[in-house]
Each structure stands twice: as C-alpha cells, then as structure tokens.
Backbone:
C-alpha cells in the first residue's frame, strides 16, 4: 500500500453518491486526534469510531459481534482496540454502494483503502475478508458488501488486469481528481478508471480468496454465474499466463514482456529498472509480480508468497467454476493445471538453502538461481503462508522459514522495547509493522508467543487505539498512517479467530509489566 504522503494532494470530491453527510468530518482528520472516552487500562486508548450518523455501513452482525467479544475480553485496552478496528472498514471505507448502470441486480461497493480515495484490489479484499466470520447466509446485511466488492473488482480486472488501484465507478457520481503522477505503462489503460497501474500478483489471489470466502460461507454459487465474475476469472488467468513468459525464448531471442512500468519518483522502489521491465526471468511455471504487496518494486519477479496465494485459490475456486453451467469449457481444468504448475515452480525454485544450511522459502527468485532472502510485513508474506492455505503450519520448510523470518537473519526484522516484528523496505529499517506482529500471533499455537505479540500491538498504538502501518521499534510515538484500513481489518480478524480457536487468550491481561502465566 502506498504511503499517503505521496498522494495526499489527490482527493476525490464528494458527488451525489456519497453515503454519509457532508457535515461529517473526514476520517482522515478525525483519526489524527484522540477522542473520548478513553479506555480504562494503562494505555488509555481513544474511542475512534465515527458518530453513528457518519458511519459508511451499518451491520447488525458486526455490532452483535462487538458486544459479544467485549463481553468476553478481560483487558480494557484490548477490548477498545477491537471495538475500534473490527468495524473500521464498515465505519469509514465504504465510500459508495449502488448498482451497475446496466443491471440493477448487480451490486457494487467502492471500498477506499483508508487515507487515499481509491480502491485497491488487494486492500479491499483484505478489508472485507474479516467479516467472513459473521457471514452465514446470502441474506445477511454484510453479504451485500461482499457481492458489491467482488462485482466491482471483477469489472476492474476485466478492464485492466495489470493495474492495482482504481477510481470510483461512473455510477457513483463521485468525481475523481487528477492523477498527477507521470507514468509510462504498457499495456495502456483508461485514466478515468485506473488510479495506479502497478502489476501486483496478489491482487488476483485476493480477488479469488474473497470470492471463495463468500462461496464457502453462503453456498451462493448462482451469484458467480450471474454477472461478470467468470469473465474476470478468464481475464486474470490470461494475464497470469502471459506473465509466466521467460525473458528469452528457446532460440535465445529476447521476448518483450506484456507489461512494463516506468514512473518519475524519488524512490527506486517506485519504478522498474531495465526500461520498465525489471530483471530478466527464466521459465519456472510461476507468475511474475514486478511489484510487491507493499506496492514496492520487486528485486526478482517471482514473488513466492503471491504465487502461493494464487496457486491455492486458483485451485479452490476452480470448484466454483465447475458448478456454473455457463462456464467456458476447460476453464476449471486450466485453473487447476496452472495452480499445479505454480506449486511445482515454488517447490523447485523457491526452496533455497540459507548460509546456515537450512532449507527455507525465499521471498523472491528469478529462475536463474537469483534469490532474495527476506520477508516483508505486507500480506501475502512468507510468515503468512499457512494462512494463505498453501501449506500446513507444521510443514518443516515453513517452520524453518518462520524461525528465520522472526530473527536477525531477516534483513527486515525490526526489534526493540516497543515492538518486535517484520518491517518493510516500504518505510525503513527499524520501523516494525504491527500487521506482522498480528500475523505472528495468527500463525502460532504457542500461547506465550501469541500473548506477547498481541501485547506489543496493544502497546504500539500511541494511545490512538488504531493499527498504524509502522511503528519505530524503540519509540511508540513515531509511526506512519493514522488511518490504515487493512491493518485495522487484520487485527479485528485475529481477535474474532481467537474467540473461537483460543478463547482463553481474551481472558489475559495485556497491561504493561504483566508476566504471562504460561
Ligand atoms: C447508520 O445508522 C445511523 C443511525 O444509527 C444512521 O444515522 C446512518 O445514516 C446509517 N448509515 C448508513 C450508511 O446507512
Ligand atoms: C456476557 O457473558 C456472560 C457469560 O460469560 C453471559 O451470561 C451474558 O449473557 C453475556 N452478555 C452479553 C451482553 O453478551
Ligand atoms: C455493463 O457495464 C459495464 C461497465 O460499465 C461493462 O463492463 C459490461 O460489459 C456491461 N454489461 C453488459 C451486459 O452490457
Ligand atoms: C532455466 O529454465 C530451464 C527450464 O525451463 C532450465 O532447464 C535451465 O536450467 C534454467 N536455467 C538456469 C540458469 O537455471
Ligand atoms: C500436520 O497437521 C495436519 C493437520 O493440521 C496433520 O494432518 C498432520 O499429520 C500433521 N503433520 C505432522 C508431521 O505433524
């Protein structure tokens, strides 16, 4: 996700389709000060939910869940952090909901990432995903948010599968501001539709994962045959296949890639070298991802976590395609074949040996032997591999990788008295991402590790009671982004899961100087 500073000047002005009154303060500014009443724990966390009239979606399921979890939670600061974060997407990010101009049954939801008025495919998928825990039927209020998000993502992925963030649909009446950046991108795209065009493979996985969540929770298979979902799946399968091409053909001749990107930027991570094509790749069966889930440029294009996510969900959603009478012949088999080829590529090229002699997953490889040993906080990450459904948490290579990622061996391991978590070159060394501490807890079965990770998240909000993008591991007062929708969503999801998986965790104290009883 982009840092807000880069695009702070680009705002989308409110049109007739707005869901909240113009008298409501923008959450961008609202989230920059602490609101009362403060929680009664040592961290005195602010109450950051907007006033009821200023919330962008009301869900009785979410309000019930908040009451239920608060009642189960012993620690007042943990309770407040959950109460602020779990509803954050619904409270603040549903900029517009409506239906398609040419089909009044096709719901659409424009979900902004937080402090930037554009819809990222990956962020929106991750912002909505936590509500899976309360989605039980296609008639639930929250089900319409899933359908609206999937339908609008499908439209974008048909129009510009190589792009990653998008402007409001014309139906919304929201007026997009000018997109000020100077880009040279192939293939070209419509500047009235696209906000930024970084090709990030996890967008495909995110779309399929959200689709799969909706399908498994509601069983509503008909939905997928009614609108543009099948066309979107064909669009991403074709784009993914094109992005598997190697740099050199069998005769040695250079094959120009289908996608290239150059932009004027202060940072080397914001553009691609080699005339916008990034470094050469060999054929591996995996799909290139010139940009990472942080929106930063990759070093080597075969990003292992994004390929893990895609392999899992191409396979999982082929079952939906199979059940649709109007599905193109052979599409489900093509998805399963591609998933198998990607998986074989990951296992052949992505498992590498560390200088210490351990077998772990690399973060990125090029198929020539080039390997980038690191992990990044943004999800999909190596740390999150079992959460992507790619492997079981007890997998030996994963356990090696996890230990390596959560150690000084990982160049982006950020340790200190405030928080110990993976960071990201998107910010800088020493800036730990609470999202990675949350993912550490979500991938652990060890109560002490879980409690310590949650404790570090609770003590790193600087009294705001919201999840920051990054926090200086030595100074909780230095952080980035007051409104980071994705981070809030993942925290809410984690607590909802512990309420089921390990309810005793919610009985713990997360106050300072607390010594865990385990
Ligand atoms: C949510 O409910 C409040 C009343 O509690 C109402 O004022 C507000 O308009 C509702 N928001 C939406 C988006 O329907
Ligand atoms: C709170 O939890 C207790 C049991 O733990 C239960 O009896 C009570 O009904 C709950 N209250 C609410 C509002 O959920
Ligand atoms: C409806 O409109 C969308 C975009 O506005 C377009 O992509 C789609 O093809 C249209 N569908 C039909 C059935 O005309
Ligand atoms: C490139 O990939 C091919 C298989 O597609 C493989 O035979 C060859 O050894 C690879 N090249 C290198 C340098 O690893
Ligand atoms: C790993 O966990 C799975 C279930 O989660 C189990 O079926 C399998 O036996 C476990 N393997 C090992 C080596 O413990």
Residues:
């Amino acid at each position: 996700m982009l840092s807000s500073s880069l695009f702070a000047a680009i705002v989308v002005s409110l049109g007739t389709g707005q869901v909240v009154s113009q008298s409501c303060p923008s959450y961008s500014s609202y989230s920059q000060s602490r609101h009362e009443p403060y929680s009664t724990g040592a961290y005195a966390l602010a109450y950051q939910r907007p006033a009821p009239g200023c919330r962008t979606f009301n869900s009785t399921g979410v309000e019930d869940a908040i009451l239920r979890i608060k009642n189960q939670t012993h620690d007042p600061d943990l309770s407040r952090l959950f109460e602020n974060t779990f509803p954050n997407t619904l409270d603040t990010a549903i900029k517009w909901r409506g239906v398609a101009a040419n089909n009044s049954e096709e719901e659409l939801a424009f979900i902004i990432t937080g402090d930037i008025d554009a819809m990222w495919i990956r962020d929106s998928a991750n912002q909505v995903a936590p509500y899976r825990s309360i989605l039980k039927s296609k008639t639930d209020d929250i089900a319409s948010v899933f359908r609206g998000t999937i339908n609008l993502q499908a439209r974008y992925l048909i129009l510009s599968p190589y792009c990653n963030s998008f402007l409001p649909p014309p139906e919304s009446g929201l007026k997009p501001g000018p997109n000020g950046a100077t880009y040279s991108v192939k293939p070209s795209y419509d500047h009235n539709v696209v906000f930024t065009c970084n090709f990030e493979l996890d967008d495909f996985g995110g779309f399929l994962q959200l689709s799969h969540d909706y399908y498994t929770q509601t069983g509503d298979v008909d939905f997928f045959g009614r609108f543009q979902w099948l066309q979107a799946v064909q669009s991403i399968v074709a784009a993914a296949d094109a992005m598997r091409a190697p740099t050199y053909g069998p005769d040695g001749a250079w094959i120009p890639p289908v996608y290239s990107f150059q932009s004027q930027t202060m940072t080397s991570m914001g553009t691609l070298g080699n005339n916008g094509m990034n470094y050469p790749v060999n054929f591996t069966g995996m799909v290139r991802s010139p940009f990472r889930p942080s929106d930063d440029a990759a070093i080597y294009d075969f990003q292992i976590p994004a390929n893990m996510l895609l392999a899992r969900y191409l396979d999982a959603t082929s079952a939906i395609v199979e059940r649709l009478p109007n599905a193109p012949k052979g599409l489900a088999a093509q998805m399963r074949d591609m998933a198998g080829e990607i998986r074989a590529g990951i296992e052949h090229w992505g498992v590498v040996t560390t200088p210490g002699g351990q077998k772990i997953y690399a973060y990125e490889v090029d198929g020539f032997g080039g390997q980038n040993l690191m992990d990044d906080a943004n999800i999909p990450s190596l740390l999150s591999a079992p959460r992507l459904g790619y492997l079981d948490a007890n997998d030996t290579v994963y356990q090696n990788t996890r230990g390596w990622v959560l150690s000084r061996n990982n160049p982006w391991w950020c340790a200190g008295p405030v928080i110990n978590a993976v960071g990201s070159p998107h910010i800088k060394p020493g800036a730990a991402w609470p999202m990675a501490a949350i993912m550490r807890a979500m991938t652990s079965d060890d109560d002490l590790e879980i409690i310590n990770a949650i404790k570090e998240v609770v003590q790193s909000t600087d009294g705001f009671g919201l999840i920051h993008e990054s926090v200086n591991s030595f100074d909780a007062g230095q952080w980035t982004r007051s409104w980071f929708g994705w981070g809030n969503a993942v925290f809410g999801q984690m607590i909802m899961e512990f309420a089921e998986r390990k309810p005793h965790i919610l009985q713990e104290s997360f106050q300072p100087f607390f010594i865990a009883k385990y």
User: Anything to note?
Assistant: The pocket of 2-acetamido-2-deoxy-beta-D-glucopyranose (ligand 2) is lined by residues 67-68, 71 (CB under 6 Å). The longest helix spans residues 331-350.
